[in-house]
């Protein structure tokens, strides 16, 4: 009887874990929404190594077929396929393509962060991203024109083991305007170390401070 109960509990735990996974599936840009502009991940399953090539735009995402135009100052964000049930920070980055964004793999020192959702409280730990299904910011006013990958990530910390679950999507956009900003740029992967305190944090062990991994947000 005890073994049967344990088995049922394990099945429920697995089902809940799978149900709680998600994809950043929809690009929100200005007044437009698009799934075609998103390089869609192959599944809702996360990856775990922030230093792997998957950190750029996930594991072998499908090609996108659209580039969405957005102006500086307009809204930019992503919508999830589910609510964000896992605790952990969320960040949005822009990476400027050297030419046609549809042919760019995101390599090189080209990325800068434009938004992040960090911690809200410590007792218990609760992130501002928790239970949301849309993450919206604006394109910084001084963003240079050109074609970009807009990239969103969550580093989910709910396992409490020092091994994160990482969810990432990229979408293809074209920024208009005459911006001349020059934000400091990072490479992805390479922007966060595997042992970064914000990646290996145990949210169940009396955490009293937390810094979202990666560079500072560029406000433009």
UniProtKB/TrEMBL annotation:
One of its GO terms (cellular component) is extracellular region. Residues 1-20 form the signal peptide. It catalyses: [(1->4)-beta-D-glucosyl]n+m + reduced acceptor + O2 = 4-dehydro-beta-D-glucosyl-[(1->4)-beta-D-glucosyl]n-1 + [(1->4)-beta-D-glucosyl]m + acceptor + H2O. PANTHER family: GLYCOSYLHYDROLASE FAMILY 61-7 PROTEIN, PUTATIVE (AFU_ORTHOLOGUE AFUA_1G12560)-RELATED. This is AA9 family lytic polysaccharide monooxygenase. The keyword Hydrolase applies. One of its GO terms (biological process) is cellulose catabolic process. It comes from Ephemerocybe angulata. It comes from the Eukaryota. Has a modular structure: an endo-beta-1,4-glucanase catalytic module at the N-terminus, a linker rich in serines and threonines, and a C-terminal carbohydrate-binding module (CBM). Its EC number is 1.14.99.56. Residues 21-208 form the Auxiliary Activity family 9 catalytic domain. The keyword Secreted applies. Keywords: Carbohydrate metabolism, Cellulose degradation, Disulfide bond, Hydrolase, Polysaccharide degradation, Secreted, Signal. GO terms for molecular function: cellulase activity; cellulose binding. It is found in: Secreted.
